[in-house]
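Quick note —
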Amino acid sequence: RRRPRSWRRPRPSRRRAPMPSRRRAPGRPLRHLGMQARRLSRLRRTSQRLPAATPTPTPAAGASGAVAAIAGLGFCWRCALRVAGCRDPDRYLAREPSAPSTASPPAQPQAGADDAAQATDACGLCLGLLERGDALRTTLAEKIREGGYDARTYSCSIVLPVFCVFRHQILLSYLREVVGEAAVGECVELKDVLRWLLTAELGALGLDGTVAGVADPENPALTVGAACDFVHAAAAQELKCLDGLGGGRRRPPGMGRKKRRRLAANGKGGGGGRGEAGEGAAPAAGSTSTASTAAVNEAMDGMDAEECLQLLGGHAADSVGASTALRAHLARFALAGGRPAAAAWEIGRESLYFKGRYLKLSRNIPQSPWVIDGERKGDSSVEELICDPMTKLFGASECKFHAEGREDIDVRMLGAGRTFVVEVKSAKRCDVGGQEVEAAVNEAAGGAVVVKAIERCPASAMSSLQAEAETHRKTYVCVCWSSRPLKEEELAILRDKRDLEVFQKTPIRVLHRRAPAVRPRTVHWMEPRLLNPHYLVLRLSTQAGMYIKEFVHGDLGRTQPSLRDLLGGGTVEILQLDVEGVGFEDQDTGSGAAK
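Predicted structure written out below.
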């Protein structure tokens, strides 16, 4: 029979059956109640089998709990203040301890022992830097007074030993385990405390701290650098656990990839860097200067006590908790008979910058010192004639010379002069004006070099020199000789040439220091003047970077076209060359006769 159209097949009910009760029936074993119950049962059975152990101290959370956690570990009173979260600089500046020290009583020196054996125990956490904080402040004040700088502001930088950062991370792991994460966040960094101690002494000397991004170009800030170093045989051994973490070592300073490759090819290895030991020298025994503090912080950040013990190469015994084992490691931080970390001071000043123009009136002076095979070329140099008087005038450590392009030793720089910038490093005087600089340089140069328009400039003027040198036009005047007699009609061809494109291969005379290449350059205009059938004076304006000597004689066909080609052959040589102008302001249209 057919079912009616309104009939539909009944659907099953969507209601689920009630779940069976998970309540444990009386007498039912606990191990059958699921994974969590089985895990809880296993932990209870394990705890029943363990023998009674010495309880790990679990002080209350907060500053008092953190101080109680490090009691008896041999730390100095300033480190105890750091762990307690004290951020009041006045408490660290106190001469007498304002907090109970956690250090053990120092051992009495034995009679007849040498100085090394009688070295007092240093705090194992700050490596003695905070214990000797008053001595560091006194030394800093003496260094600044000896420098004689007339600065009004300062900027301070501190570099800590890597071993100090490593131990600080171990302490944080311990505090994280026994006190809690709050105590870790309250712990004050060692670098902050050292900065408070040093800035208080700098303020007593009448110096004000600089504001980030705000600088006084008229009176640069004094730069105070404290590079703390710690050399200990046990320190290098303890840091070896970081070698397998990746990124735990830093390349030696001053050693780039190309330099390391070159030293390896020459069989000299890849070690060494800047310093008194010289390039390629091996580091001192026990030195930790090649480790990276950034890698230590990255590798140990957020470690708990168990992970820290695994990193140190140990583990907690069954009868001793992780925090107790780590506390035993912290107790070995006291450097029995060891010398504290030393601070190397670097007192300087931010650089001053002066911009001006120079004229070179001699044909026997290069722009920079020129030495070939141990033999000096030229009487002096533009750099020395300008920088030496400025170094003496400012009482600076040195002066760096940067010019907008350069000219050959036998080429004079005339016209308005060539722009240059001098960087004066660590100047003790800053009250010197541009006119005083001009007078001192011109008097010392004796007429070989003349400077003018000297004025203060920002540091950005140095970077703009090279950019401007690539876009400027340059005006030259040269005396040329031709083996073939010349006529006025032939010179008219040169006057008609405008924006002549010239292709120059790297000149033969500079192939030893320049890469082989073809450089397109533009000659904007030429204005020749015939002296006699074989001699002419040529004044021309070209694009920056053009080799004028090679344009005249052709450089054995490596410059196309050359003046020799434009004059119809023969031999053309350049006898004298002068630079008349650098920059758009020194150009003219070339419509008039050459001087």
